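Priority: medium. Attachment 1 of 2:
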């Protein structure tokens, strides 16, 4: 379909107008002003219409009763003068004329055959009136009807001759309610002026109220915009309302958390740079030494190359651990490969793989399974976590030491403990061992190939399984890591989305 340029202009204008109107309607200030005016004007208008409706009902009621009374008096006069048999009484005609002039209405008198013998409008004399109200009045009692649309009241009254129970005729009076309508318009006019004045005051009040409500939000918004441009040390205090106070407190907490994350990121980058730079520097020094020396013996050349190879292996390990952490951070929410795993068998396989390493270090590996355990876990990740703990226990152990892995469970969790007879962890370092790149003995860590990332990876794995890990250590005696993991993996709400 081809759209001409002029049509594009029209479409663009409509779109712009729609977006603008949406922005106005969705504006909090506009909503507050609108709600304030509606809250004030609706009762005012309801009161005005209620007063007018009450006046109309009361005025019609009084007018109807007045006309009914006049018709009753006229009926008695008609009976007294025998007007039905001789409709020539000047007194009755004068009363009829007076009645029609006062109430701006019309009066018709019908005999027992419903024939009109008198019509103040001189239109229907001699005709038969079989209207519902007249027929009902002849049969039962007086009637009245208010025609709101055409602005008149219709009243019927029977004519009874004294001493006779039979109804001999009917008086039908129709009077105008224009005077009531005029009074109603006066009410509407004056009421409209009052409502208009109220609307002005409500608008002013609404603007003031909206400004008071929106001002703290604008302050918070400004603080957020400042944060988007760069962190600020200014603490936000907006105590205007309880909600804004809570919001500002939450913002301050978020800001503190962002600063912590930023500091952690900077520290992480610095640590990564340092850890990667150290092997590179060592390799550069070794390579320069080889280049500077001529006729270097083969044995020394081999020694230098072995050192370079070790540094390369160490750098590869650092990179691999970093990639593992990054993958875990990205997949923690959704990429858990959960299956039912026999934990006893997995621990046996882990120790089997690590026994050659333990044998070289003269360390004994012991597995103590208190009961059979089957749980919903990510097999690969759990193996990685336990392997890291056992490898550390081997690396930082003493000669002829031991590492004991204990497995137990209850109705809800299974427990894995990795205890060793190693060198232990100083008390001031226990709280930091799960931090990335933290190492208790940097010289020994570098000697045994540690990167300072293994325990951080382990803690991430345990947390991804909704478990916890604790550590107890005594320098010179050993260390015990305790893991508690649910038997049944239940994804958190955010993981289900």
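Attachment 2 of 2:
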């Amino acid at each position: 379909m081809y759209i001409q340029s002029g049509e594009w202009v029209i479409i663009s204008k409509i779109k712009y107008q729609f977006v603008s109107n949406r922005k106005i309607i969705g504006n909090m200030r506009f909503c507050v002003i609108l709600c304030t005016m509606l809250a004030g004007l609706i009762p005012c208008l309801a009161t005005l219409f209620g007063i007018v409706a009450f006046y109309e009902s009361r005025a019609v009621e009084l007018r109807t009763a007045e006309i009914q009374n006049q018709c009753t008096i006229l009926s008695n006069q008609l009976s007294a003068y025998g007007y039905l048999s001789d409709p020539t009484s000047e007194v009755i005609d004068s009363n009829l004329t007076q009645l029609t002039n006062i109430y701006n209405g019309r009066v018709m008198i019908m005999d027992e055959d419903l024939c009109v013998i008198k019509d103040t409008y001189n239109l229907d004399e001699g005709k038969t009136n079989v209207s519902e109200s007249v027929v009902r009045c002849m049969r039962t009692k007086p009637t009245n009807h208010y025609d709101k649309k055409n602005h008149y009241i219709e009243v019927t009254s029977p004519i009874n001759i004294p001493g006779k129970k039979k109804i001999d005729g009917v008086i039908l009076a129709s009077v105008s309610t224009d005077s009531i309508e005029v009074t109603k318009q006066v009410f509407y006019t004056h009421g409209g002026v009052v409502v208009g004045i109220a609307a002005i005051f409500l608008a002013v009040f609404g603007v003031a109220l909206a400004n008071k409500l929106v001002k703290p939000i604008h302050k918070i918004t400004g603080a957020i915009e400042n944060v988007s441009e760069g962190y600020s040390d200014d603490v936000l205090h907006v105590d205007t309302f309880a909600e804004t106070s809570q919001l500002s407190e939450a913002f301050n907490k978020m800001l503190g958390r962002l600063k912590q994350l930023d500091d952690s990121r900077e520290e992480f980058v610095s640590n990564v740079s340092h850890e990667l730079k150290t092997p590179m520097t060592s390799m550069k020094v070794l390579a320069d030494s080889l280049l500077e020396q001529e006729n270097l013996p083969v044995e020394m050349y081999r020694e230098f190359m072995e050192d370079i190879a070790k540094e390369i292996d160490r750098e590869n390990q650092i990179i691999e651990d970093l990639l593992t952490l990054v993958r875990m951070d990205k997949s923690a929410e959704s990429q858990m490969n959960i299956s039912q795993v026999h934990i006893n068998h997995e621990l046996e396989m882990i120790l089997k793989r690590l026994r050659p390493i333990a044998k070289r270090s003269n360390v004994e590996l012991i597995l103590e399974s208190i009961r059979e355990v089957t749980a919903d876990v990510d097999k690969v990740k759990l193996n990685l976590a336990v392997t890291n703990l056992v490898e550390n226990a081997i690396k930082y152990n003493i000669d002829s030491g031991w590492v004991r892995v204990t497995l137990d469970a209850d109705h809800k969790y299974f427990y894995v403990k990795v205890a060793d007879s190693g060198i232990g962890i100083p008390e001031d370092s226990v709280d930091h061992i799960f931090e990335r790149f933290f190492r208790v003995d940097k010289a020994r860590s570098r000697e045994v190939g540690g990167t300072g990332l293994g325990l951080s990876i382990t803690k991430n794995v345990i947390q991804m399984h909704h478990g916890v890990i604790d550590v107890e250590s005594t320098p010179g005696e050993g260390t015990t890591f305790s893991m508690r993991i649910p038997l049944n993996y239940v994804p958190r709400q955010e993981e289900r989305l």
